[in-house]
Amino acid sequence: MRVTIFGTGYVGLVTGTCLAEVGHDVACVDIDQAKVEGLNNGLVPIYEPGLEPMVKANHAAGRLHFTTDAAAAIGHGEVIFIAVGTPPDEDGSADLKYVLAVARTIGRHIERPAVVVNKSTVPVGTADKVRAAIAEELAARGAVIGFEVVSNPEFLKEGDAVNDCMRPDRIVIGSSSAAAVEKLKRLYAPFNRNHERIVVMDVRSAELTKYAANAMLATKISFMNEIANIAEKVGADIEMVRQGIGSDPRIGWHFIYPGAGYGGSCFPKDVQALRRTAEQHGYRAELLGSVESVNERQKGHLFELIQRHYGGAVRGKTFAVWGLAFKPNTDDMREASSRRLLQQLWEAGAQVRAYDPEARHEAERIFGARDDLVLCDSAYQALAGADALVVVTEWKQFRSPDFARLRQALADGAIFDGRNLYHPDEVEAAGLAYYGIGRGRSV
Ligand code: NAD
């Protein structure tokens, strides 16, 4: 099938590549000329496991094209995806300017019937706005061309996006058009082979499904962080509590890890946007408000533990920071907890030596050159001259450090473990002070 995808970010590029991988003919459009040029020269702008070789192979095979020429790309696709960003607006609601700009571009250039598929995460009612924007442009040029607007929210996880795209848990299609649903079923048939994964529903339910999924996941995280904070106060260990509740299948093991707060480009903005949508419809979403405020507080928790350890005297100290990305296996630092921590450390007059396996270039872009930040090439290099270690992202390579080496390297011998990677006994046996999240024995 001939497919066009607007936006070559985490969602658009992965989706386009996976569709090409199963044999579709995909044109990816972006307004970022440097990105498109890079992709045409084999430069993949994001880190996503498995993505780069797949992009190169499909590009070389002529099934995956990159262009800034929107008109030509619209001419190419019988299915046209919108996968551009929907960042938070000033009031927290989703800013639809990129989505609607693409809709207008489609309206201006479309020459034959197509199915327009919205993959961006957008508030309920956006499909109507996309439809209206396309129709307006068609009317302006006196064209009568049939088109459908379908909602097909994306559930891939950064860090495992290719795998999620190739083996999705479910594919949600929101549409009232049987023909459009049929077309998408054919498009997705290669990903839907051994059991039924496609869930067809009305457009509004599909739009809400995406927010419900992210809000549920964010709620689980904030819930566990809340219990972790209680555990810390009452002298209980959240890791024991986690093991005590996860075995209940009604609760489950997934997403019950306490930590330094959730970040990334989705949970924070999507919880906020869902709250705004509810407000706009006269409903106060109290639980979602709490999920957000617990997370905001949690992002400052590591710094609180540091302050507590040093009795507030952090000025002049040097902290090794392991992990800058908002989670492992990605280079994405949008809304990452590390950003809050670094800001707090700098404001308190501390120095940072940071290491992240993939996010170095993002950190350079975000922070620029500054005297109080050294970006290091390895985890152990970050320890040189450091007083204490803070673990912010749970990359696998941080899981089993040589604690004796850490003891030698860290002048103040303290570890602040924002992801509960270590066992307090093991760390303390090496002569280090240990602070985790919700590990009551450490207060
Ligand atoms: P991103 O910021 O990584 O990429 C967006 C891309 O769209 C950029 O390359 C930008 O240049 C391009 N763009 C903007 N306007 C354009 C236009 N008019 N024409 C062509 N390209 C244009 O965004 P992302 O992380 O891929 O997210 C895209 C959408 O998918 C968002 O709504 C997001 O909420 C949703 N989503 C993201 C994830 C995720 O893990 N990142 C998961 C599921 C859903």
Task: Describe the protein's architecture and organization.
- This protein has 443 residues and is an alpha/beta fold.
- The chain has two domains: 200 residues, 3-Layer(aba) Sandwich (Rossmann fold); 209 residues, NAD(P)-binding Rossmann-like Domain (Rossmann fold, 3-Layer(aba) Sandwich), CATH 3.40.50.720.
- It has 18 helices and 14 strands.
- The strands form three sheets. A six-stranded parallel beta sheet has the order 3-2-1-4-5-6, with helices on both faces.
- Strand 7, helix 8 and strand 8 form a beta-alpha-beta unit.
- Helix 4 crosses helix 5 and helix 9 packs across helix 12.
- It is globular and about 75 Å long.
- The termini are far apart.
- The model has no long low-confidence stretch (mean pLDDT 97).
- The chain binds nicotinamide-adenine-dinucleotide.
- Nicotinamide-adenine-dinucleotide (NAD) binds next to helix 1 and helix 5.
- It catalyses: UDP-alpha-D-glucose + 2 NAD(+) + H2O = UDP-alpha-D-glucuronate + 2 NADH + 3 H(+).
- Pathway: Nucleotide-sugar biosynthesis; UDP-alpha-D-glucuronate biosynthesis; UDP-alpha-D-glucuronate from UDP-alpha-D-glucose: step 1/1.
- Its EC number is 1.1.1.22.
- This is UDP-glucose 6-dehydrogenase.
- Belongs to the UDP-glucose/GDP-mannose dehydrogenase family.
